[in-house]
């Protein structure tokens, strides 16, 4: 009740809710001139999928979700934990859903969507990474998936039993498999931040050796 009284008193003086988490809430009042320039709290969720490509067979690991209305082939994935790099998320989610161990190779694509129903009406970023398999034995999670297979990339690129984004990424991966993944990969480089002294991960296309 004491906290409720404090919030009520703050609201009476013009404070507005900025954000709330499990054990606290933050109210703010802009004291400067003009409209508030306080940045809004985080409004995005990050989903990451891992396209595990076996270069020796030309196959990719795909699943069918258990709780979807259409059993379409897609890449295994899920939400990134706070403070978790996207490559780590992809590897973790692939293992949790399929039992296959893998390692991060590159970032392939980013999809942005707003008013996402699965993100409480907020914005959603969906990133797809290319992974290489370290194991091949499938032991998929029956709580999340109804099926899991190593499917030929060419079949995934042409089948109607998939999603538009999966079909496009399959075609991209097929091109990379035939022409070289350096043509499609956004590789990761860790660099120091100028102002904070922390490190960040930059994903970009690699320059030819002669231009480095």
TrEMBL record:
Coiled coil location: none
A Pfam family reported for this protein in Swiss-Prot or TrEMBL: NUDIX
Places the protein is found: Cytoplasm; Nucleus; Mitochondrion
Domain (Nudix hydrolase) ranges: 43-178
UniProt keywords, alphabetically: Cytoplasm, Hydrolase, Mitochondrion, Nucleus
Main subcellular localisation: cytoplasm
UniProt-listed Enzyme Commission number(s): 3.6.1.-
InterPro entries the record matches: NUDIX_hydrolase-like_dom_sf, Nudix_hydrolase6-like, NUDIX_hydrolase_CS, NUDIX_hydrolase_dom
Entry GO CC: mitochondrion; nucleus
Gene3D superfamilies: 4.10.80.100, Nucleoside Triphosphate Pyrophosphohydrolase
UniProt-recorded Gene Ontology molecular function terms: ADP-ribose diphosphatase activity; NAD binding; NADH pyrophosphatase activity
Record-stated family: Belongs to the Nudix hydrolase family.
Subunit structure as annotated in this protein's UniProt entry: Monomer and homodimer.
Function: May contribute to the regulation of cell proliferation.
Protein name (Swiss-Prot/TrEMBL): Nucleoside diphosphate-linked moiety X motif 6
